Amino acid sequence: MERLFEKVITLKRYDRTFDPYILCATLDIEILYFDLGDILGFKTTYCDVSLIYLNQHLATTTQRFVVAHELGHILLHKGIRPLLLQYMNHSRFISHFEAEADRFAIILLLCHYYATTDLEVGPDKLMYELGIPEHCKALFLDTFSQMQLHQQHLAQLLL
């Protein structure tokens, strides 16, 4: 988690924000809205141009999570696509990258929340407010508790 936290903190240097939409704009990552059916979203990168395709029918909070998740893939998993195609049958390999992108999104959204509000809410309500999907609950609670343990360090980094 420390590596992901450091990656999120370095993003603040780009535009002094943790907002995934502003970060995408600063990093020249275009977000395109489509009817994707059951797909929440996905990213593509070609010749160093990254695009995020986002399901236009999702709730606003869920869209924010999906953008943060796909931004995580773009920043953490450069060059993975050709390798990923070789291992499509290895679900453990794929789930590692999905879990890493989920945790990145959770950290980014928690940092954005703590940097923009003084409200203290419980983890269940915060998970709902941040649009964290139910399948990420255990990961969210673990990340939330770890960030609470390092709250003083976190406060200094968020300034």
Automatic annotation (TrEMBL):
Which residues are in the IrrE N-terminal-like domain? 25-110
Check the record and name the Pfam families matching this protein: Peptidase_M78 (PF06114)
The molecule here is called IrrE N-terminal-like domain-containing protein
